[in-house]
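Data availability (excerpt). The following record was deposited with the supplementary files.
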Amino acid sequence: MMSGAFANTMVVVVLVSVGLLTQPTAHDWYQARYELLFLTYIGVLMGMFAWTAGSRRVEPLNAMLFTNLIPVSTFAVRYFQGYRFSVLELVGALMVISALVLQNIVLRRRQSVKVS
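Predicted structure:
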């Protein structure tokens, strides 16, 4: 995450320095204060607490599967929004879903062997 944060910071610095982006003023920050507070405390902090609690309840293996299925659900949402995928996109999605299913089967077998 550190390298991504650094790269994003550098992109913003460059774009601001060449004039393609403008730096928000203090007034802009003040105008967005409620949205920022909501995103910080509800969106991020409460989301992290809920994710941690949920992961404990469903166990790490299921939590990992759920995390990996997020792009698959995004794919489905895009379809219902009217986007029609190319054959190459469908093949890629099938590969991802197949890999997730196979990985999950292998990990569950390993887990059951350790318990036995």
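Summary of structural features: Residues 87-115 form the longest helix (29 residues).
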